[in-house]
């Protein structure tokens, strides 16, 4: 298996070569300045998986969303979980592998078609491809962040540390610098099945639009994640998702909407949809706020009309108003400090 992985690594480093990417970016795009807007405006990408055959095609796809966000005056643009899946199109024998997984999925229960041998093969390929993919994604998005002077959250990809893989996302500054990387803290059954590892710390980042945290998908299923983010002083929570399930409005509410109401923060959710390797994804991108801050008193600032297809959800937020409303909110912030301090320190190593 190690010999095969060595071959894969050479292959992926060739296909995702930074010099090749840099040549394309500088040749294909004219540098533009972002539109100015007096306030804080966010853009959450909802997009369908589009299998690509080259890194140039992938870069152009990302650029279309970033350019649209810039034209609409966005300060930050958020991409979804598993934002790299389009790149499996460059994997060796992808067409045959994809056809095989889709055939299995049609004959078995949804998203349960992959067996242990498949998992081992998938993990080996992902391990070989992860570092070249990470470099490529971060280089491309850093280039565009600087071009448009906009914060960009990369969406998630696979971060390799030794022989371990993590579901991880990167936050990039307006001048193209990597501000930090956040690992997913709570994995799905499928992620555990293929061998991904869990992160063990929630980070906070200071931006000129506010203090933010960037948990990933399943992390929003648990109240504690957002509670910790608030304790770290965050007013904005970025949440990329890729739900591999049929869309259901009420199942979707179990995540970011509930956490935003409980923690009194803004939530930016970016969603991946589509199908690849027998796995189907659905979900709506949206921008959420405490009920009292939303026009219809429903906790939704803006949300995609559909749970499929491509769109950019754009909305304005007001941190000062958030803080004012938080201070006057009834029953918000009731605590049992002795119990909670012990609970959080033992469970998450956080107060």
Structure report:
The chain has 351 residues and is an alpha/beta fold. 39% of the residues lie in helices and 23% in strands. Strands 1, 2, 3, 4, 5, 6, 7, 8, 9, 10, 11, 12 and 13 form a 13-stranded mixed sheet that branches. Strand 3 and strand 4 form a beta hairpin. The termini are far apart.
Short summary:
The chain has helices spanning 2-15, 18-28, 55-71, 94-107, 116-148, 189-193, 223-231, 249-252, 256-263, 319-328, 337-348, and strands spanning 40-48, 76-78, 151-161, 164-172, 178-183, 205-207, 210-213, 236-241, 266-276, 279-281, 286-288, 300-303, 311-317. The protein has 351 residues and is of the alpha/beta class. Helix 2 (18-28) packs across helix 5 (116-148), helix 3 crosses helix 5 (116-148) and helix 7 crosses helix 9.
Sketch the topology as an H/E string, one letter per element.
Answer: HHEHEHHEEEHEEHEHHEEEEEHH
Helix content: 25-40%
Q: Which outline best applies?
A: globular
Can you count the beta strands? 13
| Terminal Cα span | 44 Å
Mean pLDDT: 88
Stretches where pLDDT is under 50 for at least 5 consecutive residues are 109-113
Indicate the proportion of strand residues. 15-25%
Give the class from helix and strand content and strand pairing: alpha/beta
Write down the Rg.
20 Å
Largest beta-sheet characterization: 13 strands, mixed
Q: What count of helical segments does DSSP give?
A: 11
